[in-house]
Specification:
A 4-stranded antiparallel beta sheet has the order 1-2-4-3, covered by helices on one side. The model has no long low-confidence stretch (mean pLDDT 84). It is an alpha+beta fold and 74 residues long. It has 1 helix and 4 strands, in the order ββαββ. 20% of the residues lie in helices and 45% in strands. A hairpin with a 5-residue loop joins strand 3 and strand 4.
């Protein structure tokens, strides 16, 4: 499974998201893909943005997570 480094892009509503793309080969089972995505969601706070299924069975999964900016209060 190939993981493309995350990139920062502003969303439509002005909220910034960090994106990560994971490519899964043809032979990846649904249960293995689900396990990998659940693990990413629980440990890294990623959410599913898009899944593309290509001819030949390759899956490309895009994950995103919100970038929280902390401002000084004093």
């Amino acid at each position: 499974m190939e993981q493309i480094p995350s990139a920062r892009r502003p969303g439509r509503s002005g909220v910034e998201y960090e994106h990560r793309t994971i490519t899964m080969p043809r032979g990846t089972s649904r249960s293995e893909a689900r396990r990998l995505l659940v693990e990413a969601a629980e440990t890294g706070h990623w959410e599913l943005a898009r899944v593309r299924l290509y001819l030949g069975g390759r899956r490309e999964v895009q994950l995103r997570r919100k970038i929280v900016r902390v401002e000084r209060t004093f």
